[in-house]
């Protein structure tokens, strides 16, 4: 699958470099749109940029202390065996957060880097 | 050497897992725990260190924190101590800030807040050895130049840089950093960084006064520490009223802070290096849906198995040693009260308890290793989904696991739990986790219940696991019940930093085990020795009947009278007055049950070891000739020990941690009543 896309013409288009099936529909809707959504819906190893934190988030201050701010790059690196909590990598460290609290953080998916493809 | 009143006082500050405690140990020589789990240094620890001139310096090791906005009780202690030091409410000469060279962003983000205080600082870049292996090169000179404070590279685990820190502490106190110099960093200088971390409209304008920034960084409860603006003579004061009311959002503060951090890192790193992926790879295995659980349960089973099998050899040696000692005393001293005191009182009492030293050491070794390697934090993640369902946070796993060793460190470890109801709930159920003091009691009762046979070691281990599971299960069940009744409230959130996996610092682990062992032995040598003598006295006096049989003598003794007095209340459980005496003495410490048994039954025979006590107990009969220690009574006693609150030290610690008598008394009555009722039901249903 990945190889197919790498050889396709799509890759030359700079703004559409996220290659998952879920993303294709998005691409068809709006060619310039990057996928956005809550943090807990990120696939494994997917990098994303934080758009917004819910101002009523119960852990807001702690998230700020860990450096989770609008514009920060985060990556989902693991999940506990029962699906929650998630393990998030941010600013060279990693922390764990429950699924429902990750849900209150909106992110924008970043293009996969070459090494990940 | 004791620090004098004029000695320099230094606060050791840093983010969790920055190696602060290791540095504290190598500076002061006063050993304590070094662990990977965030916030394990929950106790306030001070030590003294000698300067190169031979003067004494006082160092206080503060709990780790991420910013000046505390989220948990132990962070609150740190922030308050730092602020009080900065405004002269306690004497603080210097902050020694420990930064993790491999995780500069979090360390520098804390540093930003500390620089706002404009008090003397020394920055220690710790874990430089790890940074080197990852080819992460830092420009120390540039950092020093930029921040205007001394910067010392170090690796506390290997001792690198410790001498330089000592020299820096010996020389005169450095001039405090100047905020107007430090803050210049975040001014836009041409090229923006690769990752724009701050959309300009959301950041704060540059060159705000440090007082104003500090005020807005603090949480409302800490703001009151700052003296009012009119105060003179204090280096930091609260900003003016209109500045206090400025609409500054926490988000813009954090954005500004991290922009400064980014700028500082960009200036000071020569090469960014590549962080090791080892931690990520290990995490993929230990959080795997199948292998994660296999590993977790394998580890737990291995831990409990070695607790009982490995420990049996040194236990045999200790038993043999005390038997030898006892027979030696008997051959040297003539028969009489003195010999009885030494053999039946002291040797039987203290020996009966020291036998359990190997098991306690192995348990602490496991907990220490799990903490130091970083696995304990992963175990907390694994357990979070399950514990969360019962109203406990995943972080409660660490206090609860520590409570298997002893409820006291377990209850103190709850300080890392941010939510007060979660914390109280964990404290309330922690004493139900079977602590190591119950181990001697279980070992004796299980041996009594299951006679020696071809499969006995296996069935005995099974019975032990049952007792541990019973306590744990009930703890979790009651946590859920408490959350539904007396501690009603919204279920709380969970966020925890995962430290990278590190090799345990063996020296520090061994020191910790040694420290624990020493505490246990000194306890056996003081409290249990005194109780042993007291119980021996109570069981041997008054000696009014000259030619009474030992049983009659015991019954007429003070202990016998006391036991007979409470017998009516415990008879429905199947206990006689002798068990009553042991139960009462257990309230000093549970393990005293075994030594009391040894002493009480020692009156009727020579019993320095487990098998001796076992034989003596099996011969015990009621007046009508029926056996006392029937399997049912053994079971009922075990269950009583699983559930009853019988530890004065735990009560004292709960009082200190909850700051009221309400909760410890609740625990005392609720747990004991529950144990009594359960035993009553069991004995009345299945009993004769």
What does this structure look like?
The complex is a heterodimer of chains A (117) and B (688). Chain A has 117 residues and is an alpha+beta fold. Chain A is built from four helices and six strands; from the N terminus they run ααββαβββαβ. The N and C termini of chain A lie close together (11 Å). In chain B, helix 14 (312-332) runs antiparallel to helix 15 and helix 21 packs across helix 22 (456-484). Helix content of chain B is 58%, strand content 6%. The longest helix of chain B has 35 residues, at 506-540. Among the domains of chain B are: 8-271, Rossmann fold (3-Layer(aba) Sandwich); 509-686, no CATH class. In chain B, helix 3 (104-115) links the parallel strand 4 and strand 5. Chain B is elongated and about 95 Å long. The A-B interface holds A 53, 58-67, 69-73, 77-85, 87, 89, 91-98, 101 and B 66-67, 69, 71, 102-106, 109, 195-199, 202, 219, 250-251, 253-255, 258, 261, 275, 279-280, 283-284, 287-290, 292-293, 381-382, 384-386, 388, 394, 418, 492-498. Strand 5 of chain A pairs antiparallel with strand 9 of chain B.
């Amino acid at each position: 699958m990945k190889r197919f896309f790498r050889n396709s013409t799509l890759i030359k288009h700079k703004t559409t470099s996220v290659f998952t099936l879920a993303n294709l529909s998005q691409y068809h809707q709006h060619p310039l749109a990057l996928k956005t959504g809550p943090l807990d819906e990120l696939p494994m190893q997917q990098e994303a940029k934080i758009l917004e934190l819910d101002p009523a988030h119960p852990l807001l201050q702690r998230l700020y202390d860990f450096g989770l701010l609008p514009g920060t790059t985060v990556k989902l690196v693991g999940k506990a065996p029962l699906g929650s909590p998630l393990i998030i990598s941010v600013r060279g460290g990693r922390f764990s957060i429950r699924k429902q609290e990750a849900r209150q953080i909106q992110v924008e998916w970043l293009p996969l880097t070459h090494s990940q493809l | 050497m004791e620090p004098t009143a004029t000695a320099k006082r230094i606060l050791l500050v840093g983010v969790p897992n920055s190696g602060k405690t290791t540095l504290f140990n190598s500076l002061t020589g006063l050993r304590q725990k070094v662990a990977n789990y965030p916030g394990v240094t929950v106790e306030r620890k001070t030590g003294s260190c000698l300067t190169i001139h031979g003067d004494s310096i006082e160092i206080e090791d503060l709990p780790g924190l991420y910013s000046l906005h505390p989220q948990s009780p132990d962070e609150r202690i740190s922030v308050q101590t730092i602020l009080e030091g900065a405004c002269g409410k306690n004497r603080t000469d210097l902050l020694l800030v420990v930064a993790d060279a491999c995780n500069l962003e979090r360390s520098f983000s804390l540093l930003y807040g500390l620089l706002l205080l404009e008090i003397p600082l020394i920055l220690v870049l710790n874990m430089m050895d790890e940074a080197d292996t990852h080819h992460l090169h830092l420009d120390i000179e540039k950092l020093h130049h930029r921040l205007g404070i001394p910067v010392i590279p170090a690796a506390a685990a290997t001792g690198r840089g410790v001498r330089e820190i000592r020299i820096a502490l010996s020389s005169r106190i450095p001039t405090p950093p100047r905020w107007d110099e430090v803050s210049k960093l975040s001014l836009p200088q041409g090229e923006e960084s690769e990752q724009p971390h701050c959309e300009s409209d959301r950041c704060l304008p540059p060159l705000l006064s440090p007082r104003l920034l500090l005020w807005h960084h603090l949480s409302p409860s800490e703001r009151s520490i700052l003296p009012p603006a009119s105060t003179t003579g204090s280096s930091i004061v609260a900003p003016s009223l209109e500045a206090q009311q400025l609409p500054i959002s926490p988000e813009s503060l954090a954005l500004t802070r991290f922009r400064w951090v980014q700028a500082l890192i960009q200036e000071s790193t020569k090469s960014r290096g590549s962080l090791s992926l080892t931690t990520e790879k290990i995490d993929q295995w230990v959080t795997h849906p199948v292998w994660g659980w296999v590993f977790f349960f394998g580890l737990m089973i291995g831990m409990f198995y070695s607790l009982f099998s490995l420990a049996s050899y040194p236990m045999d040696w200790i038993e043999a040693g005390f038997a030898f000692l006892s027979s030696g005393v008997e051959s040297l001293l003539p028969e009489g009260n003195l010999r009885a005191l030494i053999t039946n009182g002291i040797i039987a009492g203290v020996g009966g308890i020291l036998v359990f030293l190997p098991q306690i050491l192995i348990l602490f070794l496991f907990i220490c290793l799990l903490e130091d390697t970083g696995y304990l934090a992963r175990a907390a993640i694994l357990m979070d989904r399950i514990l969360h369902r019962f109203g406990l946070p995943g972080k409660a796993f660490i206090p609860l696991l520590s409570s298997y060793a002893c409820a006291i460190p377990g209850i103190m470890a709850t300080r890392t739990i941010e939510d007060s109801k979660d914390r109280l709930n964990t404290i309330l159920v922690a004493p139900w986790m079977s602590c190591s003091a119950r181990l001697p009691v279980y070992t004796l009762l299980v041996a009594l219940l299951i006679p020696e046979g071809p499969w006995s070691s296996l069935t005995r281990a099974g019975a032990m696991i049952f007792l541990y599971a019973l306590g744990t299960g009930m703890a979790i069940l009651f946590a859920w019940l408490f959350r539904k009744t007396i501690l009603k409230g919204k279920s709380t959130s969970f966020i925890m930093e995962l430290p990278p996996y590190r090799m345990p610092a063996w020296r520090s682990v061994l020191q910790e085990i040694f420290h624990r062992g020493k505490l246990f032995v000194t306890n056996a040598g003081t409290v249990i020795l005194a109780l042993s003598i007291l119980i021996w006295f109570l069981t041997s006096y008054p000696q009014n009947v000259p030619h009474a049989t030992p049983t009659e003598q015991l019954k007429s003794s003070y202990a016998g009278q006391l036991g007979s007095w409470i017998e009516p209340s415990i008879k429905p459980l199947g206990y006689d007055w002798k068990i009553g005496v042991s139960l009462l003495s257990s309230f000093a410490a549970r393990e005293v049950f075994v030594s009391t048994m040894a002493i009480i039954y020692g009156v009727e025979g020579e019993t320095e070891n487990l098998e001796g006590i076992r034989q003596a107990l099996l011969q015990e009969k009621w007046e009508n000739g029926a056996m006392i220690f029937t399997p049912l009574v053994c079971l009922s006693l075990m269950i009583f020990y699983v559930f009853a609150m019988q530890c004065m030290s735990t009560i004292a610690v709960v009082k200190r941690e909850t700051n009221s008598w309400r909760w410890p008394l609740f625990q005392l009555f609720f747990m004991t009543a529950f144990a009594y009722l359960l035993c009553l039901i069991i004995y009345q249903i299945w009993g004769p």
